[in-house]
Amino acid sequence: MSALPARLLMVTDRRQASAPLDVIAAAAVEAGLRWIWLRDRDLDAFERRALAERLLEIAHRHGARLSIGGDVDLACEVAADGVHLAAGASAEDVAAARGRLGDQALIGVSVHGAGEIAAATGADYVTLSPIFTTESKPGYGPALGLAALARAARLEIPVLALGGVTAARAAACRRVGAAGVAVMGNLMRAAACPGGVQAAVQALSRALSAEAA
Fold first, then answer.
1. Which superfamily, per CATH, for 8-212?
2. Which of 75, 61, 72, 73 is nearest to 26 (CA)?
3. Which residues of 159-183 are buried (b: 16+ CB within 10 A; e: fewer)?
4. What's the predicted TM-score (pTM) here?
5. 117-123 long-range Cβ contacts below 8 angstroms, 24+ apart
6. Which helix (H) or strand (E) holds 198?
7. What's the Cα-to-Cα distance from 130 to each of 74, 88, 153, 154, rounded to whole Å?
8. 72 with 83: CB under 8 angstroms?
9. pLDDT tens digit string along 189-201?
């Protein structure tokens, strides 16, 4: 299994983004971000591959890593650093992805409750969501809360908190045992202000570093 490259994972969503995704990614990695998850699974296959190649080049230029959401074929084609499998992925799905991408690849799985974590056997990490009420997916189930995150964090796999995470909440997530946080909306919308992405990355990184110390 691979060690996590960072405690902060940026999740892309062009529908919320205040600038092109490659512009946001470049600003984020320049500010110290070291892990990107290319989501945007509804993109045309050609466009998504082109975007993946651009993001991979940006990430690797700064020593960061790129995970591809839900598409093992694309992850193989562009030689990405890993794949993030959708909710419902089984241990067999994880094993198949690792067989194709190699032992050093990052394999993650989306889960929405502690019961789903057991099915992700063999993954390097899971994202548990939604921890907090989120603007990104306001109707996507009730917020699980920190108590649920704490229970999940006691299991034998690193858990990243996803959903409504801010810098202040990131610190709380770490306090209850989360391995890190995955952030989408707050980073995507931050590009609306000059220097906003850099400031958001730095604030999140400070919060996570303080709790890791």
1. Aldolase class I (3.20.20.70)
2. 61
3. bbbbbbbbbebbbbbbebbbbbbbb
4. 0.95
5. 117/152, 117/155, 117/157, 117/159, 118/155, 119/88, 119/89, 119/90, 119/91, 120/89, 120/91, 120/94, 120/157, 121/91, 121/94, 122/1, 122/91, 122/94, 122/95, 122/98, 123/85, 123/89, 123/94, 123/157
6. helix 196-212
7. 27, 16, 15, 18
8. yes
9. 999 999 999 999 9
Nearest C-alpha neighbor of 66 from the set 31, 22, 116: 22
Report residue 91 as tokens.
């241990």
What kind and span of H or E run contains 8? strand 8-11
For residue 1, the model assigns a pLDDT of 66
pLDDT per residue over 127-138, tens digit each?
999 999 877 655
Q: How far apart are CA 128 and CA 133, in angstroms?
A: 13
Q: Which of 15-19, 137-141, 196-200, 209-213 has the lowest mean pLDDT?
A: 137-141
**Rounded-to-integer distance, Cα 203 and Cα 207, Å:** 6
**Where do the structural domains in the chain lie, given as residue ranges?**
8-212
User: How far apart, in whole angstroms, are the C-alpha atoms of residue 103 and residue 113?
Assistant: 27
CA 57, 67, 180, 212 dihedral sign is negative
